[in-house]
């Protein structure tokens, strides 16, 4: 719109300027030609009466007669001969008469004219030499020079009227140009604005957004293409969601169906473990292997069931205000890690928080177990509180091992499901879901968990949980 307005303004201004210049030139040229023609006629008629050489009275008479031919009395005439000069108005100094005009008249037999502006007024100065014809046909200078000064007030009024007319015509032209620019811009911007809103709606997840297609121009083609793209995207996303839902249901159903036979298998392996000492060595080894694998399978099924609850939004928090340091100590003691893990915990009841004790136990157990399996001892657990801008007080749990750390390429993926940094490992002690479950449990508490490499070596996992979140819902935030 701005470009259209600028082009229209430039075009209107240029047209007005050119029109004004041509009209001004025409007005001044016409006036100038009429004055010069009339002056030549009057001088030609009265010059023979001068006599030669003319005296001052003859020069005065010629000046007066020529000036009197203009009925309104605007002409001022000066007639000179050598050192004699006679103005039509006594005492007139003819200040408009420049030395350049005098010199041009004296050196040429042609009529000379010049426009002179003085004291805010424009005058036309005309000069000519009086000649007489020789027997051989030549025109000889008589030495008499006639100068005429005509004020151009009428012509200036015409020019001013032209300026006013151009200005008055320019303003409506600009208004019309702006109106046309607005109409053109509206015709372009409305579909573009609608496309922007539709794109934003798609980005916000409203995949059923469509554009109204009007006309057959490029914008209509763009709207049609947008609708086709949105429809294809909606179909693809719907299909992916259905596939994801089926996969989640499958994992949940499989996990649920496996729990019953696993419970029976676990009971049998418990009995076999008790009698393994009385069995043959090969049989005892097989029994222990079956028992270990059954425990791993039971753990995997439990993890899958937990993830299916997260995905279904069925996981709930059972909040209770507990001593966080005591909870960490109990987690380590229950799993027999008290001697294997170095702790830096606050004094009893020094740091309390409103959390789900079972889920906090899972978080600490998963992080410490991961450090013991994949890192190098000693493993250190530190618990402290800190103030965070805009988030109140936070309980910070840090679990650090002394191993080589986590490769940079692996760090962004450590909390992904079933992710293993070593793709060559077909099997491992863990299920590949421990850190994912940890992240979900922390998120349910409104906290954050991140993985990094410590400057002094080893991997460090940091959990930040808000303290005393009395407004935290008992339901899964998702």
What does this structure look like?
With 478 residues, the chain is of the alpha+beta class. It folds into three domains: 2-161, Beta-Lactamase; 218-312, Helix Hairpins (Orthogonal Bundle), CATH 1.10.287; 320-466, 2-Layer Sandwich (Heat Shock Protein 90), CATH 3.30.565.10. It is 52% helix and 18% strand. It contains nine helices and twelve strands. The protein has helices at 2-46, 56-68, 99-107, 153-203, 218-275, 281-312, 324-334, 357-374, 434-444; strands at residues 76-81, 84-87, 112-118, 121-133, 139-151, 320-323, 341-344, 352-355, 379-388, 392-400, 448-453, 459-466. The chain has a five-stranded antiparallel beta sheet with strand order 2-1-5-4-3, sandwiched between helices. Strands 7-9-10-12-11 form a five-stranded mixed beta sheet. A two-stranded antiparallel sheet has the order 6-8. A hairpin with a 2-residue loop joins strand 1 and strand 2. The two termini are 47 Å apart. Residues 423-427 and 469-478 have low confidence and may be disordered.
């Amino acid at each position: 719109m701005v470009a259209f307005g600028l082009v229209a303004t430039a075009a209107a201004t240029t047209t007005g300027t050119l029109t004004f210049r041509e009209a001004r030139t025409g007005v001044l040229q016409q006036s100038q030609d009429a004055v010069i023609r009339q002056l030549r006629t009057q001088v030609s008629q009265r010059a023979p009466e001068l006599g030669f050489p003319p005296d001052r009275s003859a020069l005065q008479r010629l000046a007066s007669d020529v000036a009197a031919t203009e009925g309104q009395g605007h002409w001022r005439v000066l007639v000179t001969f050598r050192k004699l000069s006679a103005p039509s108005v006594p005492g007139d100094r003819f200040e408009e008469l420049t030395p350049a005009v005098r010199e041009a008249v004296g050196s040429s037999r042609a009529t000379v004219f010049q426009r002179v502006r003085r004291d805010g007024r424009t005058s036309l100065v005309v000069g000519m030499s009086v000649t007489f014809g020789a027997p051989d046909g030549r025109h000889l200078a008589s030495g008499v020079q006639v100068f005429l000064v005509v004020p151009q007030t009428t012509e200036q009024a015409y020019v001013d009227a032209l300026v006013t007319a151009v200005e008055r015509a320019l303003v409506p032209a600009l208004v019309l140009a702006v109106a046309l620019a607005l109409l053109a811009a509206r015709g372009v911007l409305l579909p573009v604005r609608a496309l922007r809103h539709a794109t934003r709606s798609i980005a916000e997840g409203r995949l059923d957004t469509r554009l109204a297609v009007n006309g057959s121009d490029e914008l209509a083609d763009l709207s049609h293409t947008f609708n086709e793209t949105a429809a294809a995207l909606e179909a693809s996303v719907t299909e992916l969601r259905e596939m994801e839902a089926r996969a989640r249901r499958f994992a949940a159903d499989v996990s649920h169906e496996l729990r019953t036979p696993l419970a029976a298998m676990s009971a049998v392996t418990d009995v076999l473990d008790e009698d393994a000492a009385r069995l043959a060595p090969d049989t005892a080894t097989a029994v222990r292997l079956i028992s270990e694998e059954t425990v791993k399978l039971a753990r995997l099924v439990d993890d899958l069931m937990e993830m299916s609850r997260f995905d279904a939004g069925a996981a709930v928090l059972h909040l209770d205000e507990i001593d966080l340091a005591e909870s960490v100590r109990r987690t380590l003691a229950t799993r027999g890690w008290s001697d294997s893990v170095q702790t830096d915990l606050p004094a009893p009841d020094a740091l309390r928080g409103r959390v789900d004790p079972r889920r906090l136990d899972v978080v600490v157990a998963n992080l410490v177990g991961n450090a013991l399996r994949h890192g190098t001892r000693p493993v250190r657990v530190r618990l402290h509180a800190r103030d965070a801008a805009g988030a109140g007080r936070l309980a910070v749990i840090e679990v650090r091992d002394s191993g080589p750390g986590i490769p940079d390429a692996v760090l962004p993926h450590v909390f992904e499901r079933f992710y293993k940094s070593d793709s060559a490992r077909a099997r491992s002690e863990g299920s590949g879901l421990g850190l994912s479950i940890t992240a979900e449990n922390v998120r349910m508490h409104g906290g954050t968990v991140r993985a990094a490499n410590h400057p002094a070596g080893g991997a460090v996992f940091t959990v930040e949980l808000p303290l005393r979140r009395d407004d935290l819902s008992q339901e899964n935030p998702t």
